[in-house]
Specification:
The chain is about 55% helix and about 10% strand. It is an alpha+beta fold. Strands 2-1-3-4 form a four-stranded mixed β-sheet.
């Protein structure tokens, strides 16, 4: 029996990259149905990052890069900070509707965190969508469609309804909430607990 895992994520969240890596590893061991949901770390109209907060992020970057390399086998070479991830999230909703959600998610995460691509650029997004198996012209039109924009809003609203105010946030088997970039073993225990409940 497949265990449902709902994951709230933003493409510009480094910890979401690490969790995606752990979930991929878990899927080799368990039958998981992973559903990606949108969450904007920097929604439109948000105040600019205070300089001291930005300094803290930059100061912690070497430790994050070391953790990604040593524990996840990922070399980080990230895209520009402070970009608007909304177009990428809208694109993900279109990709999901076309049955290419996982491929799109994987391509976008790699493009931003390992290839330093600016995923707020519609042209770059279109190229990445094609790489994920989508029709580029239709994808470009979808970025302007109210229905996909509304789907992002619905994900964010559901996150707030659940009391989620940061990402990554995962709900295993519709019961067990895990917040943050937890170690693989923590996620594995959540899957085991969800399996027991389902049985």
């Amino acid at each position: 029996m497949s265990i449902k895992v709902d994951v709230w994520s933003d493409f510009v969240c480094p910890f979401c990259l690490l969790v995606a890596s752990s979930l991929e590893k878990l899927q080799k061991e368990y039958d998981l149905a992973v559903h990606w949901h949108s969450f904007e770390l920097r929604p439109a109209g948000a105040q600019p990052m205070p300089p001291e907060y930005l300094k803290r992020i930059l100061a912690g970057r070497p430790m994050l890069e070391r953790q990604a390399r040593e524990h996840y086998g990922i070399e980080i070479n990230s895209g520009p900070m402070g970009i608007n991830s909304r177009p990428a999230l809208i694109g993900e909703k279109y990709a999901q509707a076309q049955g290419q959600g996982k491929e799109y998610h994987d391509v976008l995460m790699k493009a931003y965190w390992q290839e330093a691509k600016s995923i707020d650029d519609p042209q770059i997004l279109q190229e990445l969508a094609v790489e994920a198996g989508l029709d580029g012209a239709q994808f470009r039109v979808a970025l302007t469609q109210p229905a996909y924009n509304a789907a992002v809003d619905a994900d964010v609203a559901l996150a707030h309804e659940y009391g989620l105010d940061a990402v990554p946030a995962m709900i295993f088997g519709e019961k067990f909430l895990v917040m943050g970039a937890q170690p693989y073993e923590v996620l594995r225990r959540a899957v085991e607990q969800a399996k027991k409940e389902a049985a």
